[in-house]
Design goal:
Layout lengths: L5 H16 L6 H8 L3 H7 L3 H24 L5 H18 L6 H8 L5 H23 L11 H22 L3 H13 L1
Helix pairs in contact: 1-2, 1-4, 4-7, 5-8, 5-9, 6-7, 7-8, 8-9
Protein name: TetR/AcrR family transcriptional regulator
Organism: Niastella soli
InterPro entries: Homeodomain-like_sf, HTH_TetR, Tet_transcr_reg_TetR-rel_C_sf
Length: 187
């Protein structure tokens, strides 16, 4: 097995710690100790903790969408693919012990003035909205509520996001199951 590079170890450790205990509660010394690297090595790869956070978000987005694509790859029906977004969220919440959305956790911790981090997280959320809208455009919608595609997209997105927060709060997947049922009714 190939040994990981110091940069990979740093990012692996920081990613785990930022998600499990929070960005603000994770210190550089803890990352250095757990990654088993020299302080200079950390700063050689990431000039600041903030730069490490940006790398974490970028990597988390890549991992998230790669996993999501794999989850959806065998599902051909667009409506089933759309509703499978809820199943994926449910699976991810089970896998993380209902710790919530890693991107939402980041924006809850960074100062409101850190616009580049907010923009980076917004980019991830916008990518999800584009996927939802694409799937909606492929569905023969019954749309009993009479909503536009944009409003349906926003509704499904908010159901996903809100259900993830509620599942994290209650440590149960019932909110995600209920959100999926509501989304199906909207379609």
């Amino acid at each position: 097995m190939k040994e990981s590079t110091p940069k990979t170890r740093i990012l692996d450790v920081a990613s785990r710690l930022f998600y499990e205990q929070g960005y603000n509660s994770t210190g550089i010394n803890q990352i250095i100790d757990e990654a088993a690297i020299a302080r200079g090595s950390l700063y050689n790869h990431f000039p600041s903790k903030r730069d490490l956070l940006a790398a974490y978000i970028e990597r988390a987005e890549d991992i998230w969408f790669t996993s999501l694509e794999k989850h959806l790859e065998t599902i051909k029906d667009p409506k089933a693919r759309l509703l499978a977004l809820f199943d994926f969220r449910k699976k991810e919440q089970h896998n993380t012990g209902f710790r919530g959305c890693q991107f939402a956790k980041v924006v809850a911790e960074v100062p409101k003035e850190d616009l580049p981090i907010f923009e980076q997280v917004s980019k991830e959320k916008d990518k999800m909205k584009r996927l939802i809208k694409k799937l909606l455009s492929q569905i023969d919608l019954q749309n009993p509520a009479g909503l536009s595609i944009d409003m349906l997209c926003e509704s499904v997105f908010l159901l996903l996001e809100g259900a993830t927060v509620a599942a994290s709060l209650y440590k149960k997947d019932a909110p995600i199951k209920n959100a999926k049922t509501i989304a199906a009714a909207l379609l």
